[in-house]
Amino acid sequence: MDFLMSGLAACGACVFTNPLEVVKTRMQLQGELQAPGTYQRHYRNVFHAFFTIGKVDGLAALQKGLAPALFYQFLMNGIRLGTYGLAETRGYLHTAEGTLSPFRSAAAGALAGVMGAYLGSPIYMVKTHLQAQAASEIAVGHQYKHQGMFQALTEIGQKHGLVGLWRGALGGLPRVIIGSSTQLCTFSSTKDFLSQWEIFPPQSWKVALAAAMVSGIAVVLAMTPFDVASTRLYNQPTDSQGKDWVSKSSVASCSALAFLLGTKDVGIMKCQTSHQLFKVTQVPWWSLILQV
């Protein structure tokens, strides 16, 4: 039941946060493989991005990729939150003295996140493709021509097989490991701290709200660079053999982060400054939390 309720809760929130995810995806793809100041900025900030997308693509475009987003949230967070909740209920996250172990909590969060994210990777890839699709005058990143989730999955599967469906999955795992472990560990630790110090009445909803706000800030700071790289890995074009296409020249500058992302295609981050790797930290924190 925990798995079902976790998935349904994530889906309910996804309906409201999906427009933020569309904006985040496009802002992260903006300026890909281009030095700062050499490209046109279609989206200057979150509010300008909302206005531009609504004006050029139409208001319905702010809900692009909603179907795969709902499927992904149900699958990913159903497994992730359900597994973590089960481990917490059975006492695996606490020491012999009954206190929460940050290491066990982080490890459980990371493992639960990896399981859900890897299984849902094909859906997340299609979601990224659909959310990036835009009118030519405001398009950023590679533009796939998908007509919908099932059509996209079928086309990718027919052209590139199962390997193609899980393209970018390994590169996306560091994002989930960092995000999920940070979120769940910080949330549990903050909730325990607030309960021990009795800052709010016992069992008050304010405890969960405050813990979620603290964990949200931690997730955004820790996960954003990996989220930018993951979005670009999922959206980059492929050649006729289904291999990722990126420029292979001048690759030394970002080799360390590329190694952490599990890819040799470090060209995807060529010419990207530390500011660009932290793109869209201005997007409200709950969007990134629900997309962990």
Describe this structure in words.
- 63% of the residues lie in helices and 0% in strands.
- It is mainly alpha-helical.
- α1 crosses α3 and α3 packs antiparallel against α5 (121-132).
- It is found in: Mitochondrion inner membrane.
Would you spell out the secondary-structure blueprint of this structure?
Blueprint: H1 2-29, H2 46-56, H3 66-89, H4 102-119, H5 121-132, H6 149-165, H7 169-196, H8 205-235, H9 255-260, H10 274-277, H11 285-290
How large a portion of the residues is in β-strands, by DSSP E?
Answer: under 5%
Give the N-to-C terminal Cα separation: 21 Å
Largest sheet: none
Count the DSSP helices. Answer: 11
The chain-level mean pLDDT equals 84
Q: Give start-end ranges of low-pLDDT stretches.
A: 247-256, 259-271
Amount of helix = 55-70%
Shape: globular
Q: What is the strand tally?
A: 0
Question: Could you state the order of secondary-structure elements as H and E?
Answer: HHHHHHHHHHH
How large is the radius of gyration?
Answer: 19 Å
The class by helix and strand makeup works out as: mainly alpha
